[in-house]
């Protein structure tokens, strides 16, 4: 992946800044970081940040650190740390030795805080959380100074030491930076930098009773790691003056700069760990890797390849304005990659039995099928043919409408890789007229699917031999939500979950599929001819085949949008 990464790279405002910094000699190497908080699984929005940070480091021959922003002991778990590493690696990126934790810096961060106290730039405040909020003022009104703001340096030192040793209950004191209670930017009105939490931390255990806030820890961790370009999403723009203030006031070993870009938003889903966690914990989906979720592990289980996700992130680009990306863009990237790489197999999702009446009962034969017309190197395979086969119900109509070129009474079609067949009869259910079975004759001279007399047929159907097929469970997915922006719409109803699509999962059982499928390992990506791209589920085995549909072959979203536009 590294080889041609740079050629593909589309320029963006961050690259322009980096180019300038390098030309002007401000930096000689580029060091970025991806700083997830281990409080949930990564989603496709994080993939954008991962591709950006690791991608820039690769392109400029620099480094990208993976840093767990684990400053909040309450919501963080080792399970998330492991999943995040797995997902970053799966996406194709490598942090090498550069795996860090903000908790690695707890001592340094604490010492920085003491530096601020000693310089008279931080104080222990004993107002309640509510009072602090009240004193902060609003965008229109300036804040008021805390009565504790004038505590002596010695008193602040002693109190902070006591906080650290766990001598005070949670909420009794906080450490605040002493900046300016009338500052137009609320983040600069004496922000809290340490709070008391008597919680066990996933890495430091019970060693600490005070934990730094994000704003305090983040920029200083960047500085400790020598990060040059600290890229974050736009909601941190207002925090940048504070980010810079800490760097200005403290003896930091390097001077990172923060740049903000717009978050990715994807239609018909939610990209927020807080929301995703609700869907998982309240049982709306079957786990973090439910293929309907936009989590990286969900997309992986669904059958998206790492390359398709990287290409998608590259294409949507990096900008500064809000955008809601259409799911069809992600699906397009998936099709493009899967078309090139996935072997074709035949399988029938909604079977109708066809008996080839002139094919000898005891016979069977092996036909040659192409594994991937896009890639001759993928070779050919054998497909078994016999007197009884299955085709899709929708490929047969008793009263075919105009432009329907598939099977119908008296009509001839091609069976892919096999023969031409002509419908000569059928069995229907008494009363309903439902077609139960179809009778056809085959033309032995059309073996392989072409006629020596040049006779043309318009329809080509996929099929499987009834005697030789396997049965598979097939899972089809639809959008997770019925509205494009459930987060925005949630303001109209009480909760975003009210917009969940009740029919987002359809399970088909006992679908006849080519026996070949049993040879694929769980996780393999294949195309079922005419039916879409599928991935063998992790729980799939040769005895119990399970296929998850990644995407249909054509863009069903565009069609849907059109339908909606016309309705
Ligand atoms: P969430 O709202 O899902 O919890 P977060 O920003 O709180 O996301 P972090 O673990 O703090 O999650 O994110 C790690 C990095 O990923 C941050 O730099 C953040 O800016 C970036 N990131 C998160 N969501 C997106 C998104 N939708 N688009 C782009 N970058 C994102
Ligand atoms: Mg966060």
Structural overview:
This protein starts with a helix and ends with a helix. Helix 9 links the parallel strand 8 and strand 9. Helix 3 packs across helix 12, helix 8 crosses helix 9 and helix 12 crosses helix 13. It has 3 domains: 259 residues, Rossmann fold, CATH 3.40.50.620; 164 residues, Beta Barrel (Ribosomal Protein L25, Chain P); 121 residues, Ribosomal Protein L25, Chain P (Beta Barrel), CATH 2.40.240.10. The protein has a 7-stranded mixed β-sheet with strand order 20-17-18-19-13-16-21, with no helix packed on it. It has a 6-stranded mixed β-sheet with strand order 12-24-25-26-22-23, with helices on one face. It has a 4-stranded antiparallel β-sheet with strand order 4-5-6-7. With 567 residues, it is of the alpha/beta class. The chain contains 15 helices and 26 strands. The structure holds adenosine-5'-triphosphate (ATP) and magnesium ion. Adenosine-5'-triphosphate binds next to helix 3, strand 8 and helix 10.
Secondary-structure map:
Layout: H1 5-8, H2 13-23, E1 31-34, H3 44-59, E2 63-68, H4 78-90, E3 99-101, H5 106-118, E4 122-125, H6 129-136, H7 153-165, E5 174-177, E6 192-196, E7 210-212, H8 214-225, E8 229-233, H9 240-249, E9 257-261, E10 265-266, H10 273-281, H11 296-302, H12 306-316, E11 324-325, H13 327-341, E12 344-345, E13 351-356, E14 364-370, E15 380-386, E16 388-392, E17 412-415, E18 420-428, E19 435-443, E20 460-461, E21 464-465, E22 470-477, H14 486-489, E23 505-513, E24 525-528, E25 532-536, E26 545-551, H15 556-566
Parallel strand pairs: 1-2, 2-3, 8-9, 10-11, 12-24, 13-19, 17-20, 22-26
Antiparallel strand pairs: 4-5, 5-6, 6-7, 13-16, 14-15, 16-21, 17-18, 18-19, 22-23, 24-25, 25-26
Helix pairs in contact: 3-12, 8-9, 12-13
The structure holds adenosine-5'-triphosphate and magnesium ion.
């Amino acid at each position: 992946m590294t080889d041609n990464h740079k050629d593909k790279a589309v320029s963006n405002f961050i690259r322009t800044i980096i180019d300038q910094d390098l030309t002007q000699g401000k930096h000689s190497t580029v060091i970025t970081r991806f700083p997830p908080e281990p409080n949930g699984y990564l989603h496709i929005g994080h993939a954008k940040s991962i591709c950006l940070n690791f991608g820039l480091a690769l392109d400029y021959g620099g480094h990208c650190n993976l840093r767990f922003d684990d400053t909040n002991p309450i919501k963080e778990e080792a399970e998330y740390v492991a999943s995040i590493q797995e997902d970053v690696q799966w996406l194709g990126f490598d942090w090498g030795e550069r795996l860090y934790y903000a908790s690695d810096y707890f001592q340094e961060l604490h010492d920085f805080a003491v530096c601020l106290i000693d310089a008279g730039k931080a104080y222990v405040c004993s107002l309640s959380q509510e009072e602090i909020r009240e004193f902060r003022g609003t965008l229109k009104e300036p804040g008021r100074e805390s009565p504790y703001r004038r505590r002596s340096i010695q008193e602040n030192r002693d109190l902070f030491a006591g906080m650290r040793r766990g001598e005070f209950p949670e909420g009794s004191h906080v450490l605040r930076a002493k900046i300016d209670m009338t500052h137009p930017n609320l983040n600069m009105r004496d922000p809290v930098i340490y709070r008391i939490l008597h919680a066990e931390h996933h890495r430091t255990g019970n060693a600490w009773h005070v934990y730094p806030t994000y704003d305090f820890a983040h920029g200083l961790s960047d500085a400790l790691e020598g990060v040059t370009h600290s890229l974050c999403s736009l909601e941190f723009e207002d925090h940048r003056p504070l980010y810079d203030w800490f760097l200005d006031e403290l003896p930091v070993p390097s001077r990172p700069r923060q740049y903000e870009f717009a978050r990715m938003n994807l239609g018909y889903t939610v990209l927020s760990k807080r929301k995703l966690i609700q869907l998982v914990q309240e049982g709306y989906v079957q786990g973090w890797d439910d293929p309907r979720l936009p989590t990286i592990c969900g997309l992986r289980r669904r059958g998206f390849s790492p390359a398709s996700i990287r290409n998608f992130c590259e294409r949507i680009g990096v900008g500064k304005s809000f955008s809601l990306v259409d799911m069809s863009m992600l699906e397009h990237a998936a099709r493009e990659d899967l078309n090139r790489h996935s072997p074709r197999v035949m399988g029938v999702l909604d079977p109708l039995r066809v008996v080839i009446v002139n094919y000898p009962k005891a016979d069977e034969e092996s036909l040659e099928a192409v594994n991937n017309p896009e890639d001759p190197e993928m070779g050919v395979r054998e497909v078994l043919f016999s007197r009884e086969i299955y085709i899709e119900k929708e490929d047969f109509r008793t009263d075919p409408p105009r432009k329907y070129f598939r099977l119908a009474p008296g009509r001839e079609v091609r069976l892919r890789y096999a023969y031409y067949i002509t419908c000569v009869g059928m069995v229907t259910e008494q009363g309903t007229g439902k077609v139960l079975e179809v009778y056809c004759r085959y033309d032995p001279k059309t073996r392989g699917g072409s006629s020596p007399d040049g006779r043309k047929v318009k329809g080509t159907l996929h099929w499987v031999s009834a005697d030789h097929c396997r049965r598979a469970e097939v899972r089809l997915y639809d959008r997770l939500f019925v509205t494009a922006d459930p987060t925005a719409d949630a303001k109209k109803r009480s909760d975003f979950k009210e917009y969940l699509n009740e029919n987002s999962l359809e399970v088909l059982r006992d679908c006849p599929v080519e026996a070949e499928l049993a040879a694929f390992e769980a996780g393999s990506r294949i195309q079922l001819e005419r039916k879409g791209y599928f991935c063998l589920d992790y729980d799939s085995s040769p005895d119990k085949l399970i296929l998850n549909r990644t995407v249909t072959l054509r863009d069903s979203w565009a069609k849907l949008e059109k339908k909606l536009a016309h309705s």
